[in-house]
Write a structure and sequence with these properties.
Length: 327
């Protein structure tokens, strides 16, 4: 038996509770992992609160990422005792995820724990930090460089935003952090932001083309904010778009694309191929100092996940939330 956060649905009413589950109910993967840590991502909060249809079947164990130790393996790459990390691939959406003491997963979806990180640090980084690195790598593949001008990061106090600031500042970019929480300015500057702006300046409907302000951007927010970013990118600039904290819509025009040659680079973390995952995680392990990783995260017990999920969606949580699934 093992403990898990279980989402269930009866007559259209969803429940979320800690349950003791028989290991025999774990099916569908060739690697059994003893989970040490999982996390609470924005997507997990949407799933746990039922705010969005993230869980496609019920009952469902949420949790889009975890780090732990292999207990049994039928996969050539892994043997018992190996430390592994999982991000995405539908965990917590189409099959049972990481907010549990055990998980059974196809080995092809795992990566070895990057050298230099503990399982706890890997989950302090989690899907958010890994997505931040995917955004940075997407911008750099596009040719964005530090001398192209200021780089805007929206949703700055969130997990993706916090890591994006830390990574970009260390790569020499002048980072402008956009946030709704001005009280966190000192924290954002400590992460590496050169300036902090009020997100309200970006979140209202704006003109299709506005004064050029940013060489590039990482956007966690979507909606009018992303439209305004496109309208204010400098000629040839690019935005890596990964999130929808303001909204899923994109009320923009083609003007910035056809008149300023700007690029909108979509970033997905869920189905990224193995080699690109390894590259992103290795860069994180090499570039982001341990004290930044440790400071960006707070830790909760599995039983607190439901309460914290609600607060995360209210914007009351800053940085990353690690879940110790064994307490
Ligand atoms: P968090 O909840 O940690 O952070 C989101 C941040 O967005 C908040 O901290 C807040 O920052 C800002 N925000 C919240 N509400 C609004 C609003 N109404 N308008 C403007 N800004 C707002 O989430 P994550 O950092 O983990 O994820 C950020 C986004 O990226 C989410 O939408 C998530 O779903 C998405 N994501 C996508 C992935 C992918 O594969 N494409 C992978 C991971 C995440 P502040 O307080 O500083 O204003």
């Amino acid at each position: 038996m093992f403990n898990a956060l279980l989402l269930d649905k009866q007559d259209d009413r969803m429940t979320a509770s800690i349950q003791s589950i028989d290991e025999a109910r774990l099916v569908g993967g060739d690697v059994l992992v003893r989970v040490e840590y999982s996390t609470l991502n924005y997507k997990d909060a949407l799933a746990i609160t039922g705010r969005a249809p993230i869980a496609r079947t019920f009952p469902m164990v949420p949790g889009i990422d975890f780090a732990g130790v292999v207990e049994e393996s039928g996969h050539g790459r892994y043997k018992p005792g190996d430390r592994v990390v999982l991000n995405g691939w539908g965990a917590g959406e189409t099959h049972w995820g990481g907010l549990a003491q055990k998980a059974r997963i196809p080995g092809d979806q795992l990566i070895p724990l990057p050298e230099g990180l503990t399982t706890r640090q890997a989950m302090a980084v989690g899907t958010a930090g890994y997505t931040a690195m995917l955004c940075v790598q997407a911008l750099e593949r596009h040719g964005v460089r530090a001398d192209h001008g200021d780089l805007l990061v929206t949703g700055a106090n969130g997990g993706v935003g916090s890591f994006a600031i830390a990574i970009l500042a260390r790569r020499g970019f002048r980072v402008i952090a956009s946030t709704g929480r001005a009280t966190e300015e000192a924290r954002l500057r400590e992460l590496g932001a050169a300036e902090v702006i009020d997100r309200a300046t970006l979140s209202a409907p704006g003109k299709p083309l506005q004064k050029e302000r940013w060489g590039a951007a990482v956007d966690c927010v979507g909606s009018h904010t992303l439209a305004n970013i496109c309208a204010t990118l400098r000629y040839g600039g690019a935005v890596a778009a990964c999130g929808l904290a303001q909204g899923m819509d994109l009320p923009a025009s083609v003007a910035p694309f056809i008149l300023r040659g700007v690029a909108l680079l979509g970033v997905d973390s869920v189905y990224v191929p193995y080699e690109r995952r390894i590259a992103a995680w290795n860069s994180i392990a090499q570039e982001v100092p341990a004290h930044v990783i440790d400071d960006v995260a707070s830790e909760i017990a599995l039983g607190e996940a439901v309460d914290v999920a609600g607060r995360l969606l209210q914007g009351e949580v800053k940085g990353r939330v690690i879940v110790d699934v064994n307490r």
